[in-house]
Amino acid sequence: RMKDSLVDLKVYPEGEDVHMTLGEVLGWAQVDLDRPMDQAPNDQWLPTGQVARELLQGPAGVASGTFPTPRTSGMVIDVDLKYYNYRQAPGMTSANSADPNSRVQSSTTVCIMELDPHLRWTNSDIQTEMYSDIDNYQHTQSYGIQLTATSSGFIGRFNLGLFIGNIVNGLVLMSVATLAVTFIASYMMGLKSPFFKSFIQERADFSEEYARFAAQLIAATSIFDQLDTSKDEYLSQEELYKMVRQ
């Protein structure tokens, strides 16, 4: 496939060795080595920036004003090998699909090769040859088609232990165990359930709570007055020691 396309240019059946020629790759990529870069079908792979296009015509200051052919300049084709299974691949359908090229079993692993051409000057390392005459030497710089391969995709396998672990973690986060114990103690323990429920869900009467707080406040105030012998509304360390000794 071409990058960002769902059209299968060629399909290799499962178990068949993958063989392809450079000519086939260039044909799939719609690249004509002997046409200038700015002519169809090569112009679709030109860079969009004006500066980048001018550099294809030659170095700054000596640009020829015309684009070279890919056979002269070379080019780069990025090859992305994407692996999928469980029908996660884009454009892959179920095993009952009418299109034989898109029928994939759920557990079958497939590899989609995506091509992304780039027209630019592509050269290998410079080779320098020295001759017996020290004043003579030769630089050799080759231009050609460079294929860069990367791999990616989504490969998955069902893991029962991990699945159960995720369920348990989810139940813990939702406090399911606490809710279950509370429900059983409150409603499923027979005659003991009302007793347990009264402790779990203690009822509060605001008027009684106000009265209890007022009584505790009166008692605390009375005790404080008894302990504050200096009547400075402050319990000193000596007064506290006296209370402990008593």
From TrEMBL:
<keyword id="KW-0472">Membrane</keyword>
<keyword id="KW-0812">Transmembrane</keyword>
<protein>
    <recommendedName>
        <fullName>EF-hand domain-containing protein</fullName>
    </recommendedName>
</protein>
<keyword id="KW-1133">Transmembrane helix</keyword>
<feature type="transmembrane region" description="Helical">
    <location>
        <begin position="167"/>
        <end position="189"/>
    </location>
</feature>
